[in-house]
Amino acid sequence: MLMTREKIIEQLKDILFSADPSIKARAIELSEDTRMAQDLGLSSIGMLYIAIAIEETFNIRFDNVGVSDFGCVRDIVDYISEKLK
Fold first, then answer.
1. Taking residues 26-33, what's their average pLDDT?
2. d(CA 25, CA 31)
3. 33, 73 Cβ separation under 8 angstroms
4. I need a labelling partner for 39 at 20 to 30 A (CA). Which of 3, 19, 24, 77 fits?
5. What CA–CA distance (Å, rounded) separates 24 from 79?
């Protein structure tokens, strides 16, 4: 499935806002440099929810890697882009 980087980011933002509505409420500006744990303050349960939502949304599977292994949004977008090729 061919998907632009911008579309992946938009869908990822929707997933992040669903996982933790306070991200949007706190007006955290999401960019590719946003750090998952440090900037967003996601718990391990939040990260698990995000991993499942990413797998379902993009119809991919995380192979020997978890969302917590990614430092920032860019890392996740790169991984999703590669899996969609």
1. 82
2. 16
3. yes
4. 3
5. 24
First-to-last alpha carbon distance for the chain, in angstroms, is 7
The one-letter amino acid at 2: L
For 33-51, write each residue's pLDDT tens digit: 998 888 888 888 888 889 9
- What structural domains and CATH numbers belong to the chain? 5-83 (1.10.1200.10)
In whole angstroms, what is the distance from residue 61 CA to residue 81 CA? 12
pTM for the whole thing?
A: 0.86
Question: Is residue 53 classed as helix, strand or coil in its secondary structure?
Answer: helix
Model pLDDT for residues 60-74, shown as the tens digit of each residue: 998 887 777 888 999
Q: At a CB cut-off of 8 Å and minimum separation 6, what does 35 contact?
A: 71, 72
> Binning pLDDT at 50, 70 and 90, where does residue 54 land?
very high
